[in-house]
Amino acid sequence: MLTSSSGRAVRTETRQNSNFLTRNGPQQQSFIPPPSSSQYLPCHYFDYMTGTSTGGLIAIMLGRLSMTVDECLEAYEKLADFVFGHPRRLHIRRPPFIPRDKYDHKRLEKAIKEIIKQRNSDGHGNTMFRQPNTEMCRTIVIAWHKFNVTGIRVPYLFRSYRHPTSSDGPRDFLERNPDTRYEYKIWQVGRATTAAPTYFKAVKFEEDDEMTEYIDGGFGANNPTEEAYRSIQQLSNNDPQAVKVVVSIGTGKNLETNPSPSAGYKLYYLYINAAAKWAAQSEATHHNMTYNTRGAAEYFRLNVEHGIGKMKLDAWKGTRGSETLALIRTQTEEYLASDEGSMIVSRAAQELVTVRQARSTWQQDPDRWERFCHGVEYACRITPCNQGERRWQRQQLRSHLEECHSTQFNADELENLLEAAKCFPIETEP
Ligand SMILES: [Zn+2]
């Protein structure tokens, strides 16, 4: 997770345990719970959440879907059991090596759609990944994109907001897919980031009349922190101060591996025993981030020392994954209770609360908090008004009411009018 100097933040998750103008009426849904400043969610502390693979699903849940941590845990456990609890009997990962993936990707798609449906008042699973109000917490999910002509694979950043090309100068090849015109549904993004070869069938989307292939972002960018950090800085012309706080959550160290990444070929071979390599690559990225954020941002990395770093992507032992979940919980709690773990959590919490408090009491723009938390905007409700379709910030609507409608209400009625003018983001089906 990262927070910028203007109060923007990014959450990073790695593998495994890791409008708004409305469109047509009947298709409108809102993910937004009733406003309550007493209920703080992870997305109220971070400006960005990012993740790769199953960490990408978690970033979607905590960021794009504004879930609480408990809601996210429950949804993830259900999804994992529905998918990893039901491997195919014959598949490519074990003798006699039948050439088909270990899991049925349709089950995964169904499980992701089910999560989205439950967050929708209209109960459909086709909500777009692009968020209706970009002032709210943003989400970046990373997958691996294969170029059709050359076959080269590069990281692809699915963003819930628009990322324009950052400069008019020579193309920055580390600026991933800026100005993309493609729009994806949330479930498609979740599917792309989790499409680990040999586990799930690669996913293909129609772009420019061609089918473009995406696979699990874990291959090469299992720790998405550096990609997301760079992408957010690019939005601010590479201002090193653009991000203020980064909280990165790993999925366990693997102390037996050499932290020198050497991926790039023999994709399927690598995926056979990829857990160690992922752990090593994630640690290498962590070392880069320690250097990149020096003197610029507070960088916190939480990563369990022992026991889960070698866990396979699809580990799911015991009834409904009980053994696997118990191991993850025990090791994580032990790490968090250690001197290192508790010190990092305490310092990170302190920084994040400071950012959150500053945002909610920002004198120059007192309404920014309700925009950030709940996507609140305002519409003129007085009829007739030729600006009735327009959406405003509170102060803008106040000026509009005073300038255009002051004969229709007195000063005492102004605040009531403003309260009645609030609008919340509307999710639309494509
Ligand atoms: Zn008006």
Automatic annotation (TrEMBL):
Signal peptide: none annotated. It comes from the Eukaryota. Transmembrane segments: none annotated. Residues 1-35 are annotated as: Disordered. A motif (DGA/G) lies at residues 216-218. Residues 15-25 have a biased composition (Polar residues). A motif (GXSXG) lies at residues 51-55. Residues 2-229 form the PNPLA domain. Keywords: Hydrolase, Lipid degradation, Lipid metabolism. The active site is at S53 (nucleophile), D216 (proton acceptor). This is PNPLA domain-containing protein.
